[in-house]
């Protein structure tokens, strides 16, 4: 994953910016926001919004106040306020859309807690920042070794250095509470930096690390999904999916977020369907729902005691029978409605109204040619069979060619012997 200005290295990271797919040109940025107001000018006597959105490693974003009235644009590297020291990030959004994003994330624009933008990053700031980023992978491996040596049940998934290199944030996941006080002491001695431990969930870990989902695309949480709504197994039941944890779980080990994408459409469609626990009372017996097809709008019912015989009904027919049962009326049987449904399907005829040729016209030619070839082969077989019956000698000659050759050889030898016997005897008297 890289943009047009930086090539891809062996490990899949861009060589130019070395920012793991979040380069300064903002063309391969994760969770990018498109500034659709960039070409519009502000009305007269209106000042631009004084806050900007700054992105740091992976998908971490914060809002900062531009108190120095710097001319910032998307892709600029800036030095921002941090505690302690300063941090270095990339500007991802400016203008009025920042106000919209702050409202969406429930951040008060007038709050005093919003930190400041110091300046545009100098070359010295960028060099220190890049050297600190190069140390992250090595320190992550060493910190994992220290955690294993102490026997802590935690996983350090990512390390993020501050822009000035004086502080490092360690992101970890754990199922239970972990006492990592001794781990902080050991890491402070080994790395000589200020350490901050931050616990994240499994979904946040997958969003930071990224990956490829079972659909073949990048994970939604690492590309565009910002809010993590809770996912229940009821979402799979409403969509009639098999409750297989291996298929329903994502790379984070939790239920896939995409189960909620189409849930509202399914719930809206199911409002027209009667509940599965409602029984249909007929003169023939009581029918129980066995299966529903949400896309086609069909339901299958079976009588009690005849569970193998299913009768297909539409949602309108099922609701009609339920209304009659509410009025304490019974239908004769479900077969009447099933026969009506079958008649409707048989009456449907399809005509070529547009006047176009059939899409299978090429297939029909091939089938005709095959039929012709098959008929020709049958005629040849019949002719060969009839010829063999009329002229049996030909077949016998062809079949008995080899033994006759042996007999002919014997006969030739016999003829030679006869010739030798017929030679005249010199001692015999002539007649």
Task: Describe this entry's structure for a reader.
- The protein is of the alpha+beta class and 431 residues long.
- Among the domains are: 51-121, no CATH class; 131-206, GMP Synthetase, Chain A, domain 3; 229-271, no CATH class; 272-346, no CATH class.
- Helix content is 37%, strand content 17%.
- The protein contains 14 helices and twelve strands.
- A five-stranded mixed beta barrel has the order 1-2-5-3-4. It has a four-stranded antiparallel beta sheet with strand order 9-10-11-12.
- The longest helix has 30 residues, at 361-390.
- The chain is elongated.
- The termini are far apart.
Sheet of most strands:
5 strands, mixed, barrel
CATH class of the domain at 131-206: Alpha Beta
CATH topology-level name of the domain at 131-206: GMP Synthetase, Chain A, domain 3
Strand content: 15-25%
If you average the pLDDT, what whole number results? 79
Content-based structural category? alpha+beta
| Alpha plus pi helix count | 14
State the distance separating the first and last CA atoms.
Answer: 120 Å
Radius of gyration, taken over Cα atoms and rounded to an integer in Å: 43 Å
* Residue runs with pLDDT of under 50 for 5 or more positions: 1-5, 394-419
Instruction: Quickly give the CATH architecture of the domain at 131-206.
Output: 2-Layer Sandwich
In helices, the fraction of residues equals 25-40%
Number of strands: 12
Strands in their spatial order, largest beta sheet: 1-2-5-3-4
């Amino acid at each position: 994953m890289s943009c047009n200005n930086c090539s891809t290295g062996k490990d899949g990271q861009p060589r130019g910016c070395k920012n793991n797919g979040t380069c300064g040109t903002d063309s391969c940025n994760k969770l990018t926001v498109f500034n659709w107001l960039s070409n519009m000018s502000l009305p007269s006597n209106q000042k631009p919004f004084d806050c900007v959105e700054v992105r740091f490693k992976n998908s971490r974003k914060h809002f900062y106040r531009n108190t120095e009235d710097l001319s910032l644009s998307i892709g600029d590297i800036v030095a921002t306020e941090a505690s302690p020291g300063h941090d270095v990030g990339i500007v991802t959004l400016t203008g009025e859309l920042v106000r919209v994003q702050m409202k969406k994330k429930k951040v008060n624009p007038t709050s005093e807690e919003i930190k400041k933008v110091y300046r545009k990053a100098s070359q010295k700031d960028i060099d220190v920042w890049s050297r600190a980023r190069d140390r992250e992978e090595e320190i992550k491996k060493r910190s994992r070794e220290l955690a294993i040596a102490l026997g802590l049940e935690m996983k350090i998934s990512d390390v993020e250095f501050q822009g000035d290199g004086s502080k490092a944030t360690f992101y970890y996941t754990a199922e239970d509470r972990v006492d990592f006080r001794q781990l902080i002491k050991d890491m402070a001695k080994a790395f000589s930096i200020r350490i901050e431990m931050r616990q994240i969930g499994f979904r946040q870990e997958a969003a930071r690390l990224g990956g490829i989902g079972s659909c073949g695309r990048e994970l939604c949480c690492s590309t565009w999904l910002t809010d993590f709504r809770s996912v229940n197994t009821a979402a799979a039941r409403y969509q009639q999916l098999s409750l297989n944890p291996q298929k329903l779980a994502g790379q984070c080990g939790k239920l896939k977020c995409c189960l909620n994408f189409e849930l509202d459409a399914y719930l809206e469609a199911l409002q027209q369907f009667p509940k599965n626990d409602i029984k249909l009372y007929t003169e023939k017996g009581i029918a129980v729902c066995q299966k529903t097809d949400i896309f086609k709008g069909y339901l299958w019912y079976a009588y009690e005691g005849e569970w193998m015989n299913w009768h297909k009904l539409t949602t309108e027919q099922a609701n009609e029978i339920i209304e009659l049962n509410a009025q304490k009326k019974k239908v004769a049987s479900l077969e009447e409605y099933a026969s009506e449904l079958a008649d409707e399907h048989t009456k449907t005829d399809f005509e070529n109204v547009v006047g176009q040729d059939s899409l299978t016209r090429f297939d029909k030619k091939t089938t005709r040619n095959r039929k012709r070839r098959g008929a020709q082969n049958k005629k040849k077989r019949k002719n060969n069979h009839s010829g063999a019956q009329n002229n049996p000698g030909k077949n016998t000659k062809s079949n008995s060619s080899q033994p006759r050759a042996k007999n002919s050889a014997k006969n030739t030898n016999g003829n030679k012997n006869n010739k030798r016997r017929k030679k005249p005897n010199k001692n015999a008297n002539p007649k």
